[in-house]
Amino acid sequence: MANIERKFFNRGDGDEDEIECTRARENGDYSMTDDEGENAGNNKDEFTRTAGFHDGPQTGVKGVLADFRHSQRQQKQQHEQQKAAERAAYQALASKDIIDNSDRTIWTKDKENNMQEKTSHSDIDSELDELDSDEENERLFAEYRDKRMADLRRVAEKRGLGVLRDVTPEEYVEIVEQNADSSNNVFVLLVDQSSVSHRFASFVEAESGNFCQTVFLCVPADECGFCDAEVVPIVLVYRYGQLKHNLVRVVDQFADPRSFEQQDVAHLLRNILLK
């Protein structure tokens, strides 16, 4: 007891100061000196190192604030990382789109050119096929027409149609009477020995095969009583036994009576036999 009292009553000034500081802290009237604040800061740093303080989760008011700040920093870092990743992805995608669009544009142009070329070739081939088809049809039609005309000529020859025949005046009258009840035309050509008569008769003979419903007769004009060379050649056309056309000096129908051609004669025959 004596020892305890001695220690209590024999405290130094430092001990009394410490007691007063303790009381002041308890009453809220204490403020640190500069040296005490520096010592307290050093002691706090030492305590922090000793206790292992960090930015992770803590308890208490200060710990909650520290946790909030730590969470904010983490979210900001994550946000910045996410934005950086999005920018990198966008740039990569944009670069890829530019390359793809360039390739696609080239490919599209090549494809369009190829399709246009194919279409052009296809159109040309189609037109050629149509031309070939038309030419083939025309060829087949021409063959059929020629064959049909040949058949008609053979039949007509047996009946005396479509062929220019030399007959006497008596035969000429008889043939006209024989065809009086038919629709066949009887074409009678009266000629002499002149070059104009021979020229006209040769063209009639060449065209007669195209008129298979007509009987063509060639009779000497002088044997029928026509001795005037100025009136021949003469063309007489009968139908149903009736005289339909009487063309004296028939070559006067042409622009040049001495230099007419076969097409002139063909045109004349069509006009008088098919109308």
From TrEMBL:
Residues 1-62, 111-131 are annotated as: Disordered. InterPro entries: Phosducin-like_reg, Phosducin_N_dom_sf, Phosducin_thioredoxin-like_dom, Thioredoxin-like_sf. It comes from Coemansia asiatica. SUPFAM superfamilies: Thioredoxin-like (SSF52833). Gene3D superfamilies: Glutaredoxin (3.40.30.10), Phosducin, domain 2 (1.10.168.10). This is Phosducin domain-containing protein. Residues 1-13, 111-124 have a biased composition (Basic and acidic residues). Belongs to the phosducin family. Residues 57-269 form the Phosducin domain. It comes from the Eukaryota.
